Amino acid sequence: MIYYMPVAMLAVSGLLCVLLRAGVLRLLVGIQLLSLSAALAFLVSGIGSDSFPVSSGEAYAVVILLAGLAQFGIGLGLSTRLFYLRGNVDLSEIENLKN
């Protein structure tokens, strides 16, 4: 049970970042923290298993980490483009892209 404490702390900090979204980068970091907590939960759940050479929790964790890395790269590219076009990365500017 003690192994799940870092998972809970990462998930709560990720949820706070997403809910208190002040900027695009904080939103991206919050989503990354949520995906990292999910990957850590899969790793922790496979601690007691004796599967060799790779448990299914480790395989899922690698897939989650790779998907999160691609998501963060795309989001960072979009926020860089938004900064280039608008001069800031405020989320209220994203809602007004039709202008």
Low-confidence stretches: none
Find the count of extended strands (DSSP E, 2+ residues): 0
Given the helix and strand composition, which structural class is it? mainly alpha
How much β-strand is present in the residues? Answer: under 5%
CATH architecture annotation name = Orthogonal Bundle
The description of the largest β-sheet is: none
- Which CATH class is shown? Mainly Alpha
N to C succession of SSEs: HHHH
> What is the averaged pLDDT score?
82
**According to CATH, what is the topology?**
Helix Hairpins
Approximate helicity band: over 70%
Helical run tally: 4
In angstroms, what is the radius of gyration?
Answer: 17 Å
Q: Which term fits the overall shape?
A: elongated
- What is the total domain count? 1
Task: Report how far apart the termini are.
Answer: 52 Å
Give an overview in words.
This protein has four helices and no strands. The chain is elongated. The protein is mostly helical. Helix 1 (5-19) runs antiparallel to helix 2. It has a single domain (2-95), classed as Orthogonal Bundle (Helix Hairpins).
Strand and helix layout:
Elements: H1 5-19, H2 24-45, H3 56-86, H4 91-95
Helix pairs in contact: 1-2, 2-3
